[in-house]
Amino acid sequence: MRKKLAAGNWKMNGLHGNLQEIKNISEAVNADTCDVLICTPSTLIHSASDISNDIAIGGQDCHYNASGAHTGEISAEMLADSGASYVILGHSERRQDFSETDAMVRDKTKAAWAAGLTAIVCIGESLAQREASNTIDIIGGQLAASVPDKATGDNLVIAYEPIWAIGSGLTPTLDQIGEVHDYIRTRLERRFGTGVGRSVRILYGGSMNPKNAADIGQVSNVDGGLIGGASLKSDDFTLIIKALS
Ligand code: PGA
């Protein structure tokens, strides 16, 4: 049985003052709630992990090399050293803004695994791709090329994030979410075997909020959410955690 995961993605938001939000969420988390993760900006990982008792802390990207002359970049080992246990990789904002390819995401995932981090690999179609009925092909291609061999239920989480749903207030129908999540599950089982394929968590991301989280969380093969905007306010994020638990 996969335990649900509520993962917050703070993106480029948050200063030290916002650590109070993490304290508030920590207080609301207990043994009955789902697993909770907050991926803060790198500058907050260390302090956040110091105060977050039952909450995991993660990064939002890492370099595919372990170290070296890469000005401005951060390695997976540095994230782990700061207190992160997860890292988001291949988010559509990075694929779009920094031209990240599936091959780069795959190499970053290998780097994350080498540092002992769990990689949350993001995949998702654009609106044009959905309207052209290409969603399943796009998802299949991204999944095959972005995830390296040797995945396990501990080192990999997949996040299905339709690009058009991110930050837009729009979400796919529950049937559309279920279709993609079932497909991802089938592909994982086929590639990694049923044991591993069934143990990898598949998150839904894109305009998840306190109102839709319970319904989305009940769709087959939805093992939680990757939550952007609504993870910035502890009240909203706590409601989502409860809805997913
Ligand atoms: P959103 O972002 O919840 O604000 O739509 C989700 C994400 O980009 O991970």
What name does the CATH topology carry? TIM Barrel
Proportion of strand residues: 15-25%
Give the termini distance in whole angstroms.
13 Å
CATH homologous superfamily? Aldolase class I
- State the helix count: 11
C-alpha geometry: globular
Question: For the record, what CATH class applies?
Answer: Alpha Beta
Strand order of the largest sheet: 1-2-3-4-5-6-7-8
Order of helices and strands: EHEHEHEHHEHHEHHEHEH
Q: How many discrete domains?
A: 1
CATH architecture type: Alpha-Beta Barrel
Which whole number gives the mean pLDDT? Answer: 97
Structural class by helix and strand composition: alpha/beta
Q: What small molecules accompany the polymer chains? A: 2-phosphoglycolic acid
- Helical content, roughly? 40-55%
- Count the E strands: 8
Provide the gyration radius in Å: 17 Å
For the largest beta-sheet, the strand count, sense and barrel status come to:
8 strands, parallel, barrel
Extract low-pLDDT stretches.
none
Structure description:
The structure is a single chain. This protein is of the alpha/beta class. The chain has one domain: Aldolase class I (TIM Barrel, Alpha-Beta Barrel). Helices cover 42% and strands 16% of the residues. It is built from eleven helices and eight strands. It has helices at residues 19-28, 42-51, 76-82, 92-97, 102-114, 127-131, 135-146, 174-192, 194-199, 213-217, 234-244; strands at residues 5-9, 35-39, 56-59, 86-89, 118-123, 156-160, 201-205, 224-227. The chain has an eight-stranded parallel β-barrel with strand order 1-2-3-4-5-6-7-8, surrounded by six helices. Helix 1 (19-28) links the parallel strand 1 and strand 2 (35-39). The model has no long low-confidence stretch (mean pLDDT 97).
